Amino acid sequence: MKKSVKIVVLAVVVGLVFFAVTQMASTPKKEPTKLEKVVIAVDQGYGYQIFYGDELVVQQEYVPAVNGMQTFATPEDAEQVADLVISKIEERTSPIVTLEELMDMDIVILVP
């Protein structure tokens, strides 16, 4: 390749890189999601709510993945599962909680 063609190609590449960098710098960065949990008292136990700002996005009054309407035995159990659901939402994965995950977290599950 001739020297003048190489210089033109180099100038174009440098220009494209400069354009890309300035575009990235001027693009507003997304703030992380503002998901917050609140442990609530329900029936004879606990549940949780998850809010996005002021909007209620999850209301979980019973232990997920468990048959029946069993509430969480302790506020700590409800909070631990709420944290798991929030992390799943932030990772953009399914927020469904499995029985195995509950067992891994030592969540109290009453057997009728």
What is the subunit arrangement here?
Answer: single chain
Q: How is the biggest beta sheet arranged?
A: 3 strands, antiparallel
Number of helical elements: 3
Strand coverage percent = 15-25%
Folded structure, characterized:
This protein has 2 domains: 29 residues; 70 residues, no CATH class. Helices cover 41% and strands 20% of the residues. The chain contains 3 helices and 3 strands. About 15% of the residues have low confidence.
Compact description:
The protein is of the alpha+beta class and 112 residues long. The protein has helices at 3-26, 75-90, 99-104; strands at 35-42, 45-52, 55-60.
Observed structural traits:
three-stranded antiparallel sheet; single chain; globular; 112 residues; 2 domains; 41% helix; 20% strand; 3 helices; alpha+beta
Topology (SSEs and partners):
Layout: H1 3-26, E1 35-42, E2 45-52, E3 55-60, H2 75-90, H3 99-104
Antiparallel strand pairs: 1-2, 2-3
